[in-house]
Amino acid sequence: MPRSGLRMVAAVLGTLTLVVGCGGVEGGSGGGRRPSGAQVTIRVPADAPTISTAVSLARPGDLVLVAPGVYHESVKIGTARITLRGASRDKVVIDGRLQQPNGVVVAAPGVAVQNLTVQNNTQNGVLVTGSAKAAGGLPGRSGGYDTGDEPVTFLKSFLVSHVTATRNGLYGIYAFSAQNGVIEHSYASGGADSGIYVGQCKPCHIVVRDNVAELNAVGYEGTNASGDMYVVGNRLVGNRVGLTTDSDHQEKLLPQRGAVIAGNLIAANQQKATPEQADGGWGTGVGIDGGSDNQFIRNRIADNSNAGLVITATADMPPVGNQIVDNAFTGNGVDVGWTFPTATRGRDNCLRGNALRTTVPAGLATAASCPLLAKSPSPGGRWAMPTAPGGIPFTEVAAPGPQPQFPHASTAGATAVPAVPVLPDTAGIPLPSASLLAAHARVGTS
């Protein structure tokens, strides 16, 4: 490091707030020394001029606290167990100006990203990954990351909370080749591919909960995301497609299997003022494409003009053993539709306890009632699917309004991210109230 850099480090360390031992706070003293075991709060811009500078100075256990302002930078976090937090979720904005691929890249374990906005990046708002190629900003051919011969390396343990991700060219919040994490209390809009995406993990041990995704091509997408993968209590309303879980050769760890999708509100996913979905999807609440052994429990799936839930197959991967249990379907073009390519059909997919008006083929609730005999073929059919209208550039998606703040953002200490998150008990996840549907009018239903 050049001497000018050393002088900057010494100057910054000399002014930091030190958190020592069990949380006692004492003012920073000159000389740049840090007591053994101390944790510090590095304030931007008071202690460091940019977020990236503050992150580079942080050590495990430190908090980087960012004051309101617009920051034109791409922040890469390579130090374990640090917390990056905005003092105001709506007023701390990391803006890529369409000149950088990612707003925040988390490439170290135990990191928390909280209470800020990331926008106008050509790829992702927040990327959490153990893949060096993904962290380097090498996108795949149609969204996602084709990492070639790179071995699968997982980033283990992360937290993304109270983050607003809007107007990003691929994904708002993206966990790829990562495990043992939580994405919660966040908002994603204007994702040209998906608002929230989890890809290439097995077992995932990931929880996506209590988020809002609207005005995206797809609200939530899980590709090759298998094993202890929970998507619970989210609001996926006013996208082109609400939620998909699928298998895709572009990523490793095929096939996708073993996700739990429970207690979500998935409604009115035919919003025109959104980026076009790459495969032309439109008006669909839930799509299962070559995914297997997934459980869809107590979701409210309503007012999706094409279909509430669709099960289909990729060219060579059948959907097997998906269970659709105790969901409420209302106002969809077709409530549940199963349709398969000629060469690849599903099997052992079943339904139980759902409120259904129409299915394709007819009579699925009886013919495919859970439990089924092993290796039971899944019947398929066809229906008239609406043509997707043209979309708008992701840069033109409506700006979000104010979102809920992280409690005590400026006074709470750093967040300790658990090595493995506590996984939800699905028995305690309720069906969302029908009264929640009234609020979807704010994003439109046409």
Describe this structure in words.
The chain is mainly β and 446 residues long. It has a single domain, classed as 3 Solenoid (Pectate Lyase C-like), CATH 2.160.20. The protein has helices at residues 3-13, 51-57, 132-135, 364-367, and strands at residues 17-20, 24-26, 39-44, 63-66, 69-71, 75-77, 83-86, 92-95, 102-106, 111-119, 124-129, 155-168, 171-176, 178-184, 187-191, 194-201, 206-209, 212-213, 218-225, 229-232, 235-237, 241-246, 259-262, 265-267, 284-289, 295-297, 300-302, 307-312, 323-325, 328-330, 334-338, 350-352, 359-360. The strands form two sheets. It has a 22-stranded mixed beta sheet that branches. Strands 6-9-11-13-16-19-22-25-28-31-33 form an eleven-stranded parallel beta sheet. It starts with a helix and ends in a 79-residue tail after the last helix. Residues 166-336 form the Periplasmic copper-binding protein NosD beta helix domain. This is Right-handed parallel beta-helix repeat-containing protein. It holds the Pfam family NosD. InterPro entries: NosD_dom (IPR007742), PbH1 (IPR006626), Pectin_lyas_fold (IPR012334), Pectin_lyase_fold/virulence (IPR011050), SCF-Subunits/Alg-Epimerases (IPR051550). Keywords: Repeat.
What fraction, in percent, of the residue positions are helical? under 10%
What is the typical, i.e. mean, pLDDT? Answer: 91
Q: Pick out the low-confidence regions.
A: 1-11, 19-31, 441-446
| The CATH top-level class label | Mainly Beta
Instruction: Domain count, please report it.
Output: 1
The total count of helices amounts to 4
Largest sheet, in brief, is:
22 strands, mixed
Q: Please give the radius of gyration in angstroms.
A: 22 Å
> What would you call the structural class?
mainly beta
Beta-strand proportion: 35-45%
Shape: globular
Tell me the distance between the termini: 57 Å
Examine the coordinates and then state which fold CATH places here, giving the name of the CATH topology.
Pectate Lyase C-like
